[in-house]
Amino acid sequence: MKCQLDADTAATHIAPVTTQTAAEPYTPRVGDRTSRHLLWIFAAAIFLNATLLFVVQPMFTKLVLPLLGGTPAVWNTCLVFFQGALLVGYLYAHVTSRMRPVRQGILHLVLLALGLLFLPLGIPAAAVPPPGSAMPIGWLLMLLTITLGVPFTLLAAGAPMLQRWFATTDHPQAANPYVLYVASNL
């Protein structure tokens, strides 16, 4: 069975398609929730977030090295902690993604403000490392969790949250927020 449409039927049932070619730059319309700078704002926020995240790792690890020596156990323990905290941050972003973006943003800002209580980063005077021959792994994990756990986990959640928030905008590239992933890897 063939289906044929006459010109009148086609004109009333098929909506005209308007496309924007790659050569045409995006220009915001009046009343649009977006602007042409929106992508750059999100990219800058993700870049700053990633910079803070990756600067803190070697900085804190180098703080504990004089206390414990430059053994592979110190470096490996720090690596395990940072990967675990990154995973917890992604889990936090995933669980809270069920919230509306505004509520998720408010919650995240409140938690970030609470995370400021852990600054400046440093080793508390009461943190006494184990004696010379004892394995420092447990002590170091506890120290990392107490001093860096909250701020690092919240920073780790920043990129996935920002990508989700960008996806909810009216920006033409919002359907693919993963273009912002590049900003975290510069």
What count of helical segments does DSSP give? 5
Helix content, binned percent:
55-70%
Run of helices and strands: HHHHH
Stretches with pLDDT under 50, minimum 5 residues: 13-18, 25-31
Question: What is the first-to-last residue Cα distance?
Answer: 57 Å
Amount of beta strand: under 5%
Shape: elongated
How would you sum up the major sheet? Answer: none
The radius of gyration over CA amounts to 24 Å
Description:
Helix 2 packs antiparallel against helix 3 and helix 4 packs antiparallel against helix 5 (about 135-165). The chain is built from five helices and no strands. The chain starts with 6 loop residues before the first helix and ends in a 19-residue tail after the last helix. The relative contact order is 0.17. By secondary structure, it is mostly helical. Residues about 15-20 and about 25-30 have low confidence and may be disordered. Helices cover about 60% and strands about 0% of the residues. The protein is elongated, with a radius of gyration of 24 Å.
Reconstruct the topology from this structure.
Elements (H helix, E strand, L loop, with lengths): L6 H7 L24 H31 L3 H25 L4 H15 L21 H31 L19
Helix pairs in contact: 2-3, 2-5, 3-5, 4-5
Write a compact overview of the structure shown.
With 186 residues, the protein is mostly helical. It has helices at 7-13, 38-68, 72-96, 101-115, 137-167.
List keywords for this structure.
59% helix
